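[Meeting: bench + compute handoff]

Bench side (C.D.) handed over the final construct sequence. Compute side (W.E.) agreed to return the predicted structure before the next meeting so the bench team could plan truncations. Sequence as handed over:
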Amino acid sequence: MNGFPVQPILTLVNALRSGELLLRDYLDELEARFAELEPNIHAFVPEDDRFDRLKRDAQALVERYPNPLNRPPLFGLPFGIKDIFRVDGFETRAGSDLPPETFSGREARAVTILKSAGALVMGKAVTTEFAYFGPGPSRNPHNTDHTPGGSSSGSAAAVAAGLCPIATGTQTIGSIVRPASFCGIVGFKPSYERISRSGVIPLAPSLDHVGVFASDVAGVELAASVLCPDWQLAVAEMKPVLGIPAGEYLDHATPDGLDHFEETCRSLANSGYTIKQVRAMNDFEKTVARHQLILAAEAAQVHAQWFAEYGHLYHEATVELIERGRRISVGELAEALNGRQQLQRELTSQMDEHGLDLWICPPAPGAAPHGLESTGDPVMNLPWTHSGLPTVNLPVGFDEDGLPMGLQVAGRWYEDEALLEWSAQLELSLGRQA
């Protein structure tokens, strides 16, 4: 990828807040990069006069905060907003062909918080249909013949291409961590409901998580500190003890994916980290089935009215999901929902028993698949979403075809601050390879 280099987020934030980098000059640079790359990547929902609007919003922001000392923490940072978040002044289509007025309502709480912290709305980022598997037009910036992943396709591609420094995403199975891995960026899925889902078009409310993408851990940590209520600074004084969830779960990675993961583990061990193999998730296939049951049943409930009126406009993958969900009984759903806490307790107990601070594992079976018909398999992310535990993707090198690879790191329930502090440490140990 050519164009102006992607700056470390904190360097960019400090330059914008201090006035060392004028906001209008930054937007001029961003506009040039956008004109060069976006026509081939399709990360954003098309918008007429995008940069005229952005520059007006930027001017209003500068006039509101003329004194650099009083500028809010995200002053002037353009955010890509996944198109299932309602944003005042923008249509919400959720990657679908349904009339946008179908999804009208109050602005997403997360968007309102970002704006209050000085962020600018870069625009609506492309999503798969209703954040499920019906793919959109977005392409992987590292190789446009490959998927960027999904469902947060546009958000991940936009950050990877340097079209915006940070973007919002959601994850119901693997829609933050997987595209982050495929696109070679940091993706953060917090603990369940740590960031408000208000104003976000749901897929399966018991599984939906709101999170963020950035080029580095400091970027997602900055966004999380604004978006998560009662965020507390954490200090990582010692190296964390890392656990590998050995067993049938890891069998879902490809041979190349496992080779890369094992190489990453060796690198961490050589850097002084203690790594323990712990047999975990022995009933993994049951967990997958339980998760898929919840997803289908709740999607059918969420879409009941819309589907009754506009079912002919839905992608075939979403149709299959909803029709499957209609056949699930209330009792079956209730039983499956109980399994979420069961898995969370199981994984946490194993961390206690073996003295683990973090779990590490592949963020996807392998690198981004060729083609745009599929967004890839989210199976490696599923248990962490099911349990609600916080997870991060860290970019770690490339495969032999030059496609990004990553490392998935999972922490304890609602200890997101510690997860990100340790992830910043791991990021330094593994090195930033762009």
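W.E. noted at the follow-up: The chain has 14 helices and ten strands. C.D. will use this when planning the next construct.
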